[in-house]
Design brief:
Layout: H1 21-27, E1 39-44, E2 49-56, H2 75-92, E3 102-112, E4 120-131, E5 135-144, E6 147-158
Antiparallel strand pairs: 1-2, 2-4, 3-6, 4-5, 5-6
Length: 159
C-alpha cells in the first residue's frame, strides 16, 4: 500500500479538463446516482497516473441521511469513485476487449483519514500497481481541501 503521496496534486493544473462527463459516460457503465466522477483533470500514461474529481454537494442524494445534521460523504462512495477512475484509465490503455464488462474485484489496505463534508471538490488519484489482460490493481488516494482523506488498493476484473 502506498503510504506516501501518489502525486502532489498542487503540482498539476486542477482546472484543466482532460475528460469531461460525456467522455467518461462513453467508457463507463454507471449512470444516474452512481456516476461518481465529474471529470478527469490529469492523465500521464507513462507515469501511470490519473486524477479525477467529484463535486461534493450538500444537495446530493446521500447528504440528508448520512449523517443527519452532519453530512459525511460515505467511504464506500469514495471507493466507488476511485474504482470508476481506475476503470476509465484501464480502458484507455486498450488492454481489455472493449466489449467486455469491467467488474469490481475488491479493495485492500483501505484507510479513511479525514471527514469529507459538503460543499467542495474531492480529487481522486490512481496509479497502476499491476495490469493484466483480465485483472488490474491500482493504488488510489482521495484528497479533500488539500488533505489526503483516504487511500486504498482497487482491483477490477474483466468479466
Amino acid at each position: 500500500m502506498a503510504t506516501q503521496l501518489l502525486l502532489d496534486i498542487s503540482t498539476i493544473d486542477l482546472d484543466k479538463i482532460v475528460a469531461d462527463r460525456d467522455e467518461l459516460l462513453s467508457k463507463l457503465s454507471q449512470r444516474g446516482t452512481f456516476e461518481m466522477l465529474g471529470g478527469v483533470c490529469y492523465r500521464d500514461p507513462e507515469a501511470e497516473l490519473i486524477v479525477g474529481y467529484k463535486d461534493i454537494r450538500s444537495d446530493d442524494w446521500w447528504a440528508p441521511d448520512h449523517i443527519p445534521g452532519r453530512p459525511l460523504f460515505p467511504g464506500a462512495m469514495m471507493i466507488e469513485a476511485s474504482a470508476q477512475l481506475c476503470t476509465y484509465d484501464y480502458l484507455l490503455r486498450g488492454t481489455a476487449d472493449p466489449t467486455k464488462f469491467i467488474g469490481f474485484g475488491g479493495v485492500d489496505a483501505t484507510r479513511f483519514r479525514g471527514p469529507v463534508e459538503p460543499d467542495g471538490r474531492m480529487y481522486f488519484v490512481g496509479r497502476v500497481k499491476r495490469i493484466r489482460r483480465s485483472l488490474f490493481t491500482y493504488y488510489a488516494q482521495g484528497f479533500y481541501r488539500d488533505k489526503m482523506v483516504f487511500e486504498s488498493e482497487i482491483m477490477g476484473v474483466v468479466l
